[in-house]
Design a protein that fits this description.
The chain is an alpha/beta fold. The chain has helices at about 5-10, 10-30, 80-95, 95-110, 115-120, 130-155, 165-180, 185-205, 220-230, 240-250, 325-335, 360-370, and strands spanning about 35-40, 40-45, 50-55, 210-215, 235-240, 260, 280-285, 295, 310-315, 335-345, 370-385, 400-405. It folds into three domains: about 5-55, no CATH class; about 80-165; about 180-405, Vaccinia Virus protein VP39 (Rossmann fold, 3-Layer(aba) Sandwich), CATH 3.40.50.150. It comes from Hohenbuehelia grisea.
């Protein structure tokens, strides 16, 4: 149904006037049949012989994401990025049932403990873990539901279309929120941000006004925030809607520091030192995200048509994530101004989808072929954890590779 708006209603007198003039004209010129469109798209159909007058409101353009009648019945038919947004939103709203199922499975396994053993374990207070963890998980669920509601309003996707849930998406968002925006993540951030911030300062000094920095694969955006705090104009780019929705929620729905509480370790009961570790709360954000950071949603390979536009590009845990490293390096090179600085820190983990799984040395040689002058003196190996639970008895250390390189001035 076309919508009738206030401006449409104001056109009714105009339409009435037109109709009277035409009707009067028909008295002198004989029967009249015509359809006309007057300003603002109001359509008038007049047939004086059959005494028919129809006035139709304008056809308003419909946003396919917001108008239920225009939404496809199945998520598979949604165009991108609506399909990914829909799936991420569904994953956040499904967190509650998923986490409670995980806890219910633990409870069911516990119910199989032999009666004799049960007496022993009861004195440990083990059974109390189920109610405590369900309560903590409900706090997470409220956060995930509020995040999802915020995302639905932001993207106008009020109706959830059924889709597969990405079970890891919410856990990853919680882990990255913790790493980027809680006190628990501070030690990791210091380790990896310090060399990056130092390299920027070494190159540009204090006079950062007007300098443009790009941070592709920005995740939950803390590095972009830190760079922006130094006065640079920062574009962050991210394509995963788990991260994007969480970032928007953090930026738009945070009134003060430590406004939100999460229990990111609540369903992870392995590698724990003590019974309390799983209920460790994290409070976010430790600082308010810098609203000057511009988040570009989408693929860094396609979202930036303008070449030579950045003074620096900073890649953190990023260059090993794509399909083709040559595409990534060529795009970083293209987007830098001549003489512009590329700072990299990250592992060489390469997903199974990567077309090539090069060593760090091979990547640096490739960078030279593409037109970077690599500063070999800048190179460091930096051992770091990634989104690590502080009390976990499992540690996964990356020996990340740090370097700086410049886009050669020669073509
Ligand atoms: C390992 S995570 C690191 C995130 C962040 N740099 C950090 O250190 O926390 C890599 C990120 O890059 C994003 N990403 C992968 N390919 C991308 C692309 N082509 N354009 C933009 N982002 C991309 C992923 O969605 C993911 O959030």
């Amino acid at each position: 149904m076309p919508r009738i708006t206030t401006s449409t209603l104001l056109l009714i007198p105009t339409a009435a006037l037109c109709i009277s003039v035409l009707w009067a004209a028909s008295k002198f010129r004989g029967p009249l049949t015509l359809s006309i469109t007057i300003p603002h798209g109001v359509e008038i159909h007049l047939d004086t012989k059959q005494s028919i007058i129809q006035v139709a409101a304008p056809k308003t353009p419909v946003n396919p994401l917001t108008h239920p009648s225009q939404q496809p019945a199945a998520a598979a038919h949604l165009p991108e990025p609506a399909r990914s947004i829909n799936q991420a939103l569904n994953s956040f709203s499904a967190y509650e049932s998923r986490v409670q199922k995980t806890l219910a499975r633990k409870r069911a396994r516990f119910s199989q403990v032999a009666a004799l053993h049960r007496t022993l374990v009861d004195s440990l207070g083990y059974a109390a873990h189920f109610t405590r963890s369900e309560a903590a998980a409900s706090t997470n669920s409220q956060f995930a539901a509020a995040l999802s509601d915020h995302g639905r309003a932001l993207y106008g996707m009020h109706r959830a279309l059924p889709s597969a849930n990405d079970v890891e998406l919410v856990d990853l968002a919680f882990a990255h929120l913790t790493r980027d925006w809680s006190d628990d993540g501070a030690a990791e951030r210091v380790q990896i941000f310090t060399p990056i911030m130092k390299a920027l300062k070494l190159e540009f000094g204090e006079n950062t006004a007007g300098l443009r920095v790009l941070n592709p694969g920005s995740g939950l955006g803390r590095l972009a925030h830190e760079i922006s705090q130094q006065g640079y104009i920062v574009d962050a780019c991210e394509l995963d809607y788990g991260s994007i929705l969480a970032y928007h929620y953090l930026v738009n729905a945070t009134k003060s520091t430590y406004d939100h509480t999460l229990y990111p370790y609540v369903s992870n009961w392995v590698h724990q030192l003590n019974p309390e570790a799983r209920y460790r709360p994290v409070h976010i954000p430790d600082v308010l995200p810098d609203p000057r950071v511009r988040l570009v949603e989408g693929d860094f390979l396609t979202e930036f048509p303008e070449s030579a536009s950045y003074d620096a590009i900073v890649t953190l845990f990023f260059i090993d994530i794509g399909q083709d490293i040559v595409d990534f390096l060529r795009n970083i090179h293209r987007l830098l101004k001549p003489g512009g600085l590329w700072i990299n820190l990250g592992p060489f983990k390469w997903g199974s989808f990567a077309h090539m799984q090069l060593s760090a040395e091979e990547v640096l040689t490739l960078a030279g072929m593409i037109g970077f002058d690599v500063d070999h003196d800048s190179r460091q190996s930096i051992e770091t954890l990634y989104a690590h639970q502080p009390e976990s008895l499992l540690k996964f250390t990356y020996v990340t590779q740090f370097w700086t390189a410049k886009k050669a001035l020669r073509s």
